[in-house]
Amino acid sequence: xxxxxxxxxxxxxxNWVLIDADGMVLGRLAAQVASILRGKTKPQFxxxxxxxxSVIIINAEKIRVTGxxxxxxxxxxxxxxxxxxxxxxxxxxxxxxxxxxxERAVRGMLPKSSLGRAQFNNLHVFVGxxxxxxxxxxxxxxxxx
Length: 145
Prior knowledge:
This protein is α/β, with parallel strands linked by helices. The chain is 28% helix and 17% strand. A 4-stranded parallel sheet has the order 5-2-1-6, covered by helices on one side. A two-stranded antiparallel ribbon has the order 3-4. It has a domain at 14-67 and 97-140: CATH 3.90.1180.10. It is built from 5 helices and 6 strands, in the order E-H-E-H-E-E-H-H-H-E-E.
């Protein structure tokens, strides 16, 4: 009789991955990063176990979007009070905090559960080519643009 293999939490081997976001399209990069964070690139993928790798993204300010999203894409937040609707466009967000744009895109592609929140904690996004995880010896990979 054949049985299905399920990876256990202690059997998971985690790696560190470095991705350069220079000139990459936001949505395509986010989809690839979400797949790596979930562990779908590993042959022993188990949906209910956090088995993804830790991902470091550098050059977040050099990300690009296609079409006219640079002028029309916007995020809204509402305080609940009259006049409390705040809108931030893509351009404003890129000027203030470009790393949050990538984080927001990746978070939307992960499961909406405690497992997804745990997987999101393995994402580290940096503005510029420097990062603080050099001691982890991350493996640089090229993600399809």
